[in-house]
Amino acid sequence: MASITLRDVCLDYPLYGAYDFSLKRRLLGRLLRQGSEMRTIRAIDNVSIEAKAGARIGLAGPNGSGKSTLLRLIAGVFPASSGQVAISGNIVPLLGLGAGVNLDFVAADNISLLLRISGRKPTPDILDEIWAFTELDDRMRRLPLRMFSSGMLMRVLFATATAFPADILLLDEWLSVVDENFSAKAEERLLKMVETAAIVIIASHDHGLLRRTCNSIINLDHGRIASQIPLDAPVPFPLELREKRA
Amino acid sequence: MSGAHFPMMTLNAPTRRPSVLHIFKVYYPDLFGGTLSVIRDICTGLKDTFTAAVLVCSRSGGAPKIVVNDVAVERVHSFGDVLSLPAAPTYPWRLWRRITEHDLLALHAPFPLADLVFAFGLGRGRPLVVHWHADIVTHAGLRFIVEPMMRRTLRRAAAIIVSDPVLVETTPLLQEFADKCHAVPFGVDVAKYDRPAVQPADVNARGRLVLACGRLVPYKGFDVLVRAAHSRNFEVWIVGEGREREHLEQLIRDYGLQDRVRLLGSVPESERVKLMRIADVFVMPSVTNAETFGLVQLEAMAAGRPVINTALDTGVPYVARDGIEAITVPPGDAPALADAIETLINDPDRRRRMGQAARHRAVTKYSTTAFREGVETVYRRVVAEEAIAAKDVGLSAPASRPHTAGGFVGAIRIAAALAWSDMRHRYVRSLLGPFWMSIQMAIMVGVLGSVIGHFSNAGAVARLPMLAASLTAWTFLNSVVLDATTALQGATSLIKDRALPPVIFLLQCTFRQGLFALHNATVPLILWLALTPRDISGAFVALPGLALFIVCTLALSLVLGALATRYRDIKPIIESSLTLAFLSSPIIWTSDMIDRSSPVMRLNPLTHLFAIWREPLVTGHVATTSLLYVLGCLAVLLLAAVVTVTHLRKAAFWI
Predict the structure, then answer these.
(1) Domain boundaries in chain A?
(2) What is the pLDDT of residues B130-149, one digit of tens each?
(3) DSSP string, A46-88
(4) Which residues of A touch B567 (CB under 8 A)?
(5) Residues of A near B (CB-CB distance < 8 A)?
(6) Cis peptide before A238 (omega within 30 of 0)
(7) Which fold has domain A3-230?
(8) In a domain, B20, yes or no
(9) Burial letters for B386-424: b for 16+ Cβ neighbours within 10 Å, e otherwise?
C-alpha cells in the first residue's frame, strides 16, 4: 500500500559558492584554520506530512517556499538532514518533462529510451499505444525530435510520461500542454492518472487548480507548513489544464 | 527478478512451514554467547511454525554444512576477523544465493557484511526482520561507511525487534524507524535454575563470592571488576574465554590478586548454572552500549542472585532495576563497583530480598514463552503481509509494474540502456559511428609504430598488435575517467527531475566507453590476425587480467567522478595527471626498452595494471608481483568506491 510519512523532516540545503567547489581552497582554509563553516539554508523546516492511499495534496506558496524541494525530497533526490522519511509505493516524479530527451534521435527511439529510464520494457504494443495517444502522423515516428514543433514535442513527452499508472505521483507546476485541441485529451489522461494513483502531490501557484484537484492544500512558507486546509468535497471536474505561470 | 511470484507459491502450498534464514556472523559450535543463545532459542522455540536455517561465517574450516540442534547451519569460510568483522569475501554472494530459498530473512544486527547485500538492493523479494542486538560501538570511526548501509537495511526491513523499548529512544538510527520497532524482551528458562534446597545467600558461609560471566572482550569491563577487587576482601570468579585473557591475567598479577580473583575459562552450561546458584553476588560490569540487554544478568536473576550492573543507555539497567533487583553503578567506575559489592556482601538480608525480587521479575517479566510468542507474532505478521502484497501484485495487471529489480540491478540496467543509446547516437550522426575513432586510432598506431621502430631495432612490425591493444585499453581508461568527471553535471535534469540515482551516470561512462572500446578493438584484432602466428592460448590467460583492468577503471571512475563533481578544481588535475600517466607508463613503449628496475616503473600502478593482461599475451603467464599489486590497488579502490557510492546521495546538492 502506498503511503508517505514525513515526521519532523528538515532539509539544510548547502549553498555552494564558487569557492566551495574548490578543494585547494578547502584544504588551504583548513590549514590556515579559517572557519570553513558551510553555509546552508533551511529549505524544509520541520515538516510533517502523513499521506495514505487516496490523498491528493496540493502544495502552494510563493517562489522559494520549498515546494519543489519538498517534492524532490519525497522523490528521494535530496536526503533529509533530520527527521524521518518513510515512503512505500512506486514513485513517478514528473518534475520536468524534458529530462533524458535526445533531440537527434527519432521519436520512437526517444520513447523507448524514456521508458527504459523509468524502468519499463518498451514493447511494440506499448509504443503503439503511446503514439496513438499523441494523434501525430505515423510517419513522424521515424523523424528526429528536433524537427518537431514544441507543441508536438510536448505531446510525445506527455504521452510517454503518463503512459503508466503510478502509486505516488509527484507533479511540479502542472504540466503545461500547449495545443488547444490536445489539452482536453491530456486533461482526461492526467485526471485518470490522478484517479488511479494512490497518492498525488501537486505543487502549483494556481490555487483554483489545486482546489479543484486536491483534497487538502498545504501552504508552505520559507520551508515551513504555514497552514493546512482540508477540502471536503474534491470536485475533479471541470479541470483546466492550461497552466498559468507565475 | 521481481520475486512477485515466489511468495505466491507459498500461498498455494499452505501445509509447508515457512522457512526463516537467520543471518549472523557466527554460530555454534564456533562460539558461545548471549546473542547466539537468543538465535538458538528462536530456532528451537519456533520449530513448530517455522523451519529455521542459519547462514554464518566460520574460521574453523570444518564442514560447510552442519546440523546443530536440528537446525541446518551453513558456514562460509572466513580468513579471520578484520575490525571485529569476519573476513569472508564470499559471504555476501552466498547470502544473495540463499535469499530466494526462504520465506523470511532474520538479520541479527549489527552485521555490516549482510548490510552490504541489502544496501545494494538485492533480495528485495523476501521480507526482512532485523533483530537489533546492539549498535556499532567499537571502531566508531568507520561509522560513516557503515551507517548509510545499516540505514538502508533498516529502511527495507518490515520489522525491527529490540530487547527493550529504551533502545529505540537512545539509538538515533532506531528513532528514525521507531514505528517499525517491536520490543520483545529476551526470556530465560527459569526452571533450569530451580533447586529447592538452595536458599539465597545460604551456601557460601563467608558470603563473599562474586561471580561474573561473559566473553573476555573489552566491552564486558572485567578489568574494572579486577581493579575493584583490589584492597577489598571479596572473591571474584569470572567465567568465560576470549582475547582479553592475557591482559586480565597480567592485571591480576600486577595487583597481586591471584588468590582472590580467578578466571575459570569456559565452563559447560550445567556448571555455569551451578556457579550461578552458589554465588553471593552477580556482577555485570559492562562498560559500553554494546551491552544492550545482558542476557547473563537475567540468568543470574533466574537463579535468585542479587545483581550489580552498570548505568548504560541500554536495556541493562531496566532489566535489573537499581534498588529493587540490582545496584546500578556508573560504568567503568571501579571504586563505586567495589562499594556496591561490599554493601551487598555485608548485608545478607538485603541480598536475600534482592535475590527473591530478581527471581520474581525473571519469572513474571522475562519468560521464554513470552519471548517466543513475541517473535512468532512479528514473524507471522511479516510473512502474512508479504503474502498479501504478493497477491496484490498478482492481481494488478502485470504491465502496470516497473520491470526493474530495483536498487543496484535496476541502476545497472538503466545505465546500460543509456550507454547503448549513446552508442547509437554516434551512428545517427555518421554512418561509421564510433569506427571513426577506430580509424583515428589505426592512424595513431601506424605513426607511433614507425617512430618507435626507429628507437628499437627489434621487429617494429611484430610490436604493432600489442601497441594497438595497449592504446585501445588506454583510450578506454582515459575516456571513462574523463567522462566521469563531467557525467553528473551533464545529467542534472535526470537526477533532479526524474530522481534517478546518480551512480547510474557514472556507470554509464564505463558502459559507453566499453562499447566504444569494442569498436576500437577491431584494430588490434586485425593487426594480430595479420601479423602474428595465431596462438590463442595466451588470450585466455589474459582474460582475468583484462577483467581486473576493467573493474579497476570502473572503481576509479566512480571515485574520481564523484570527487570532480564535488570539487570542480580536481578536473584539470585529473586531466594533466592522465597525460602524465600516459607518458610515464609503458603503454606506447614497453618496459624492456628501458631500465626495468626503475623505481618509478615498479611503483607505477599502471605498469602492473597493463602487465597483468599484456604479459600473458606475450609469455603466457602472469607475474605474481603485478597481480598482487593490482589486487591491492583494487581493494583500496573498491573501498573508496563503496564510500563514494554511499555519499552519492548528496550529489544532487552539488550539481
Answers:
(1) 3-230
(2) 999 887 776 777 777 788 88
(3) EEEEEEETT-EEEEE-STTSSHHHHHHHHHTSS--SEEEEEEE
(4) 21-23, 26
(5) 5, 13-14, 16, 21-26, 72, 75-79, 84, 86, 90-91, 93, 95-96, 98-100, 102, 104-105, 109, 113, 116-121, 126, 144, 164-165, 172
(6) yes
(7) Rossmann fold (3.40.50)
(8) yes
(9) bbebbeebeeeeeeebbebbbbbebbbbbbbbbbbbbbb
Q: Is the pLDDT of residue A186 over 60?
A: yes
Cβ separation A96–B429 shorter than 8 A: no
pLDDT 10s digits, A88-140: 888 888 787 777 788 888 888 889 988 888 888 888 888 888 898 888 888 88
Determine the residue of chain B that is closest to A73 in CA distance: B499
B581/B522 same-domain check: yes
Please write the tens of the pLDDT for every residue from B596-619. 667 777 788 888 898 888 888 888
Q: How confident is residue B12, by pLDDT bands cut at 50, 70 and 90? A: very low
Least confident of B137-151, B261-275, B342-356, B450-464: B450-464
pLDDT of residue B511 exceeding 90, the answer is yes
- Which run of H or of E encompasses B51? strand B51-58
Do B346 and B422 belong together in one domain? no
ipTM: 0.85
Phi (first) and psi of residue B642, to 5 degrees: -65, -45
- Pick the residue of B497, B560, B650 with the most A CBs within 10 A to test the interface with A by mutation: B497
| B391 is a domain residue | no
Q: How deeply is B614 buried, as exposed, middle or buried, from its count of CB atoms within 10 A (0-12, 13-18, 19+)?
A: buried
State residue A89's pLDDT score: 82
Asked whether residue B303 falls in the same domain as residue B425, the answer is no
Please indicate if any CB of chain A lies within 8 Å of the CB of B454: no
**Three-class SS state of A112:** helix
Q: Which domain holds residue B226?
A: 190-365
Grid coordinates standing for B158? 518490515
Same structural domain, B460 and B478: yes
CATH code assigned at B239? 3.40.50.2000
The kind and range of the H/E element at B44 are: helix B34-45
Q: Indicate the number of domains in chain B.
A: 3
Mean of pLDDT values over B525-544: 80
